[in-house]
Amino acid sequence: MLTTLSRVIKYGLVGFWRNGWLSTATIAIVFLVLVGFGGLIMFNSLANIVLTDIQDKIDISVYFKTEAPEDRMLEVQRSLESLPEVKSVEYISRDKALETFREQHKDDETVSQALEAIDVNPLAASLNIKARELKDYEAIAGYLEKDTFREITDKVSYTQNVGVIDRLKKIKSTVEQGGLLLIVFISLIAALIIFNTIRLAIYSNREELSVMRLVGASNFFIRGPYMVQGVVYGLIGSIMSAVVVTLGVLYSSPYVKIFVPDVNGWAYYLSNLFGFVAMQVIFGVGLGVVSSYIAVRKYLRI
Amino acid sequence: MIIFQNVTKIYKMDDHETVAVEDINLHIHQKEFVSMVGKSGAGKSTLIKLLTGEEKPTKGKVSFGSYNVNKLKPNELPFLRRKMGVIFQDFRLLPNKNAYENVAFALEVAGRTQQEIMEFVPQALEMVGLKDKMRNFPRELSGGEKQRVAIARAMINHPDVIIADEPTGNLDPVNTWEILKLLLKINELGTTVILTTHNKDIVNSINKRVISVEDGRVIRDEEEGKYILV
Predict the structure, then answer these.
(1) Is residue A9 within 8 Å of A229, Cβ to Cβ?
(2) What SS3 state is found at B98?
(3) What is the annotated signal peptide range for this record (chain A) (predicted)?
(4) Chain B residues lying within 8 Å of A19, measured CB to CB
(5) Is B26 in contact with B4 (CB distance < 8 Å)?
């Protein structure tokens, strides 16, 4: 069995080498398809990071009436924090709000003069709430509508932000679903192209396959070398494509940074490098092996 | 050793049927040399294909030694074929392997060790007179040389029978005789030989059993027979 296995591997490699042009063409196709596949996955991941980043910037605020006592407000904060949908709640007291306001408008004479003139703090205390998911904001806003809260709250900013949140929600689900659909579609095309290429390569050897059968070769002995070749096609094609995708990310990440300053595509790619390369290799090698297996089957019935 | 019992083979193509061979009964013994003659399309090649398991009979039974050929599953066929050596009119060598590798291939598929291969292959190629062309690829060999490589390949596993399907059809008279001499020598060494041919001269000169096939039936079966044109 070991002799047979080593012969199968040897014949696979020899066949790969002697059919130089065919091997080159097959690898080129595997390579092109995998570059498309890898690029798409990378794009989809980046789009998701960008959207998550934007999502982090979204929050809703509850403004309290100026006469509301502080312990009641902290009570509201605690009750919000106990909700599973809520990621974080930040309490901003009236003094802090005034401080921030002054800081923001320190160069504006009229604003500071106006503040001097009224002499009391006109700003309301507020809670800054971030939800775990975009869709949770609606529920949180609804929760704040309760009568016990209404006594002390002035307004909830959700109604003002609802348009932005809705639009972001839509973009996010479109990118997720569209990306997935596109990946499935490209994978299907990739599988068909690679399958057909290997099938053609085997078709040109069909006479040999029948001779092998007549000399008494077992199916494993005939099929094995082609599967070894499939592995080699997949391996070389996917390594080449991993190199190209890596270079692509390296050169494009500065442009992504201009678009969304907080996202470092290159760092993200590097931290997931192993996963990306492994995915490409598994996809490439898997396609090569399965295609070879199916394509030879037809000629083994003699 | 080889028995055809009431064998009929009908090829079905869409809506019409072609009867290739009909009601064949044959018994070929060990160490026999049998020539099978007949016009193209008479059914000789079909009989060969039924014996090698390439085709299954529509009716009847083909047996080879202890094998019931028509009952073998695809994964059992290789074991049958390692007991047969088949030689074709068009040689059917593997074009990407040189003479040595072509012969070695038959041993490799049978799982023989590298030492055995290195010992037996040069011997077989020497027997057919091609020791100095071991490293040549089929495209670098003449028709007669290719057929001798094919004979070496057929012989290498010490088969019980050599099946030669029109082995001299593509060869000139000198090479034809060379190949025939090799087949007779193989037979003298104790291997059954089944030879199908159109060549009247060789059949008439060797004085061996002749089976004449016409329109899918055996019309004559004689020890020390002649090729008689109808």
Answers:
(1) no
(2) coil
(3) none
(4) 96
(5) yes
Structure tokens at A67: 């006469």
Do the domain assignments include residue B127? Answer: yes
Dihedral sign of CA atoms A78, A80, A83, A84 in order: negative
pTM: 0.68
Classify residue B115: in a domain, yes or no.
yes
CA gap B79, A45 in Å, rounded: 54
Residues A248, A43 contacting (CB under 8 angstroms): no
Q: Which residues of B touch A220 (CB under 8 A)?
A: none
Q: Please answer whether residues B194 and B38 qualify as being in contact, where contact means their C-beta atoms are separated by less than 8 angstroms.
A: no
Can you tell me the distance from the alpha carbon of A268 to that of A262, in angstroms, rounded to the nearest whole number? 12
How does pLDDT run across A84-122, given as a tens digit for each residue? 888 888 888 888 888 888 888 878 888 778 877 877 787
Give the chain A residue whose CA is nearest to the CA of B92. A211
Is the pLDDT at B164 greater than 80? The verdict is yes
Q: Say if the Cβ atoms of A216 and B105 lie within 8 Å.
A: no
Which tens digit of pLDDT belongs to each residue from B173-215? 999 999 999 999 999 999 999 999 888 888 998 899 999 999 9
**What are B63's two structure tokens?**
């047996």
Helix (H, G, I), strand (E, B) or coil at B61: strand
**Rounded distance between C-alpha atoms, residue A186 and residue A296, angstroms:** 25
- B106 close to B124: Cβ distance less than 8 angstroms: no
Q: For each of the domains in chain A, give its residue range(s) and CATH number, in order of start.
A: 2-54+168-300 (no CATH), 59-133 (3.30.70.3040)
Domain that holds residue B147: 94-158
Confidence of residue B230 (pLDDT cuts 50, 70, 90): low
A13 in reach of chain B (CB within 8 A): no
CA triplet B21, B22, B23: central angle to 5 degrees? 135
Residue B148 lies in a domain: yes
CA distances from residue B8 to A80, B50, B148, B163, B218 in whole angstroms, order as listed? 88, 10, 33, 20, 12
Contact of A207 with chain B, judged by CB distance below 8 Å, is answered with yes
Chain A: closest CA distance from residue B78 (Å): 4
Contacts of B176 (CB under 8 A, 6+ apart): B168, B199, B202
Contact assignment for A208 to B94 by CB distance below 8 Å: yes
User: If residue A244 lies in a helix (H) or strand (E), which one and from where to where?
Assistant: helix A219-259
Compute the average pLDDT of residues B75-81: 90
Structural domains counted in chain B = 1
User: Burial of A116 by CB count in 10 Å (0-12 exposed, 13-18 middle, 19+ buried)?
Assistant: exposed
A155 interfaces chain B, CB cutoff of 8 Å = no
